[in-house]
Amino acid sequence: MASIQKYLFDANEVAIILNCSKSRAYNVIHKLNEELAGKGYYVERGKVPKKFLEEKFYGLVIE
């Protein structure tokens, strides 16, 4: 059986990754999701795609 890689991160995970508060993580997710929705993508409220998070924060690599 193939391993499933995590695709979406919630506020707890974003707070850990960015070393910020959970409240700030929710704000970051909200802004990123607004940008994705503006480009016509479906967004999951309270979650952000891993690849987009890496793209928007210079030098961030999530393994």
Q: Describe it for me?
A:
The protein is mainly alpha-helical and 63 residues long. It has one domain. It has helices at 11-18, 22-38, 50-56, and strands at 8-10, 47-49. The protein has a two-stranded antiparallel sheet with strand order 1-2. Helix 1 (11-18) crosses helix 2. The radius of gyration is 12 Å and the shape is globular. The two termini are 21 Å apart. The mean pLDDT is 92.
Secondary structure layout:
Elements: E1 8-10, H1 11-18, H2 22-38, E2 47-49, H3 50-56
Structural features:
3 helices; globular; 2 strands; single chain; two-stranded antiparallel ribbon; mainly alpha
Short description, anyone?
This protein has 63 residues and is mostly helical. The protein is 51% helix and 10% strand.
For the termini, the CA-CA separation is: 21 Å
Structural class: mainly alpha
Largest sheet: 2 strands, antiparallel
The quaternary state of the protein chains shown equals single chain
Helix and strand succession? Answer: EHHEH
Low-confidence stretches: none
Total count of domains: 1
Q: Helix content range of the residues, please? A: 40-55%
Mean pLDDT: 92
What shape does the CA trace take? globular
Q: If strands are numbered along the chain, what order do they take across the biggest sheet? A: 1-2
Strand content: 5-15%
Number of strands: 2
Evaluate the radius of gyration. Answer: 12 Å
Tally of DSSP helical segments: 3
